[in-house]
Each structure stands twice: as structure tokens, then as C-alpha cells.
Amino acid sequence: MLVSRMVCIIVLVLYITRQLLNTKIGVILCIAAIVMQITASGKIVLLNNSNPQNSNTEYLEQLLLFKKKQVFLQSTIMNIYFILLSLGILLYMIEYTIRMNILAGLLTYIITSLWMLFNWFYLRPKIIKKQQQKLNEIIADLENINEQFLMAN
Known about the structure:
Blueprint: H1 2-15, H2 21-42, H3 56-97, H4 102-152
Helix pairs in contact: 1-2, 2-3, 3-4
């Protein structure tokens, strides 16, 4: 999904002439945010690629390592991503809002800012909580299996 957004941004840059420098800086910030997010997400090793011969304990260790990486991605990387993307969008919008009357420009920035705040303070925590809950359930189930296996031996 991020790659398709980046392709759309690049197509817009190539086919629509920009006049102001801040518009170009905004586009660069948006592309940088997307590239950073893709790069950081790609560095998390998918568990599906793990060796099927691994024991439950090894798989649990992989899950715990994955959880640490996911927390880093959801906090540090996501914060940087959101800041770069927000700044990029706000800078990009300047070229178009200066052509509007002041009320329309303010309304545009208010609506955009409210949408960003909604994403940051409502959707983002909800998504993070859902992801962490799923991962915690898997880890708890695997820990229970390990305990049962150890008690049986």
C-alpha cells in the first residue's frame, strides 16, 4: 500500500508543474517518510520464513524478538514517519491554499489537521493495541504449550 502511494506521489511530481520550493520539499518529505517506513518494515523478519523444525522454545524466542522490533517500529519509526508525512503534506498544500481566499485556506488546513490528529490519537493507538493483543495472545498460548510440555517430561 505504501509503495502505491509513493508511485502516485512520483507520478504527480512528474506530470504536474510545481512553482514553489516548499511544494517540492513537501513531496520530498512525503517520499522520504514512505521510503523510511518501507525500509524499516522490511527489516523485520517474517516469522513465516522461519525453519519449521524449530522447537516451540525457539519459536517463542523469535516471537519475543519480533515483538521488540514491532514496538520499535510502532513507536520510533511511526513517530518519525508521521512527522515527516504531516510536514510534507502541509508544505505541499501551501501552493494551492495561497490561491484560495483566507477562509477556504484556513478551512482546508483545519480539516486536514483534524484528520491527522484523528489518525494519530485515535486510529494509530487502536491499530497498535490490536496488533499487540494478537501477538500477546500467540505468545501466551505458546508459553502455555511450553509449560505443558515441560510438565509432561
